[in-house]
Every structure is written in C-alpha cells, then in structure tokens.
Amino acid sequence: MISAxxxxxxxxxxxxxxxxxxxxxVSAGHGRSEACTLSPxxxxxxxxxxxxxxxxxxxxQTIIQNHTTESKLGPIRTALSEPLYRHLxxxxxxxxxxxxxxxxxxxxxEARGPGRFxxxxxxxxxxxxxxxxxxxxSRIYFLEGTHEGRLFPHVTGKxxxxxxxxxxxxxxxxxxxxxxxxxxxxxxxxxxxxLISLLHPLVSGIVTSRLQKGVETVDRLGVVMxxxxxxxxxELTNPPALPGHHVAFLKQALRGRQNSDKGSLDGSSIP
Length: 271
Fold this sequence. Notes:
This protein has eight helices and nine strands.
C-alpha cells in the first residue's frame, strides 16, 4: 500500500510560514482597499475622498452603499469665529465640559486616542467618533454607537458623517461659521434594517435631531460667549480645573471678541 504523501516543513519553512501568511493577508487587504471607492458627491457637495486613507475606504463604502438612512442638515449658522469653532470641534472633551458648566447640555466626552473620542449626548445616544479626514473646509467622521429610546430599547449602528464648513460675516459684521452635515447611518440589526420602508422616517428623524441638537448647542454656546463673556470666563475658572491651554485659548478668543466689539462701537479698526 502506498501511503499518502505528507508535507513535512523544515526549520526554515516553519519560520517563513507565518510571514508568508501575513503577506497573503496584507496583500488581500490591499486588494480590497484598491477595489473600494468612494463617491466625491454627497448631497450635492464635493468632498476630496481621494485623500482618505485607503485603510478607511472599504469601511466607509460599506456603510454608505448599504445605509439605512441618509440625512442632510444645514446650512446651520453658529455664532463662532472659525478659529474658535475649529478649536471646539478638535477637542470634544473640553467642549463638553464647557457646555455642561454653562448648563447648555449634558454632553460628556473622553479622548480614546489620536482623533478618536467617546461621547454621550445625555439623551440616550453614546459611542465612538473617529476623525477620518480633515482640511480647512471639510471633515469626514466615522461613528459607531448605541441609542436607547422608548420605541427601541437598544439600537446599535454605524455612521459616516461628511461636514462642510464656511466662514462669513453676520448682520452685525461678526464672524460666524456655517455648517452642512451629510450623514449615512447603517443599523446593525438586520430585522430593523429590513423594515426600512417603515422605519426610515423614524430613524432618519432620530439621526437628524441628534445632529441638529449638537450643532444648535454649539451655536447657543457661541451666543453666550458673545453676549456674556464674563460669565463664560468665570465658569472656566471654577473648580475642578480645566486644561490650562484650552482655558487660555478660550480666554484669548473672548478678549479678542470684546476688543472687536469695542472697536466697532468706537468706529476704529482692529490692528
């Protein structure tokens, strides 16, 4: 009887096999990334998706192409200058602290790595937000989280949010920031996703309301900073202490706004 041939790896082969396996996985991953593409057009806005890290492309494409809901919000105007708006956008934990201290909301946030944050809006929605891409006018975010509500006790899902911002002057010649958000949401629960024709208005309404609530809260923060900077400064100095560099930046921005207002009233220009 002829026995079946069996491969007996030698010492060198045993060392190389794991590396060969890793190479196959990496090359397969590159192949999938190259096969995945993102449309630059989202709700009529063009985003530089070609600059997105290829490692993200397939993850975003899956959500966008198989989304449960698509929402567009804006433009929404916030009473914040571009530097202040970007600083608050870049540092969610600090922004959430300021919002809570001024009693504008119950937001909480924690840093979980570079460009990665955990957040809780205090109204049933919490999860992880990751910054995928940014430039002076555009941002792309990946979100993964849960929503607790009366109708659906526990819903999990993922989302891709495209953000476009623009700077302008309002009717009082104060600098303001306009925001437009386009969000694609994909529920993890197949049963709920299968009821899309029935659930779309509800789920879309939840997503839109959460996005709108966040932007409008930031706008209310900007209004308070503009109308009552002394109160904001006082809250910033109350214990527990907030990060010093954030407080210093915000105080400088508020002082700059006060000086700008005085200059406008005096008819003199700001150097």
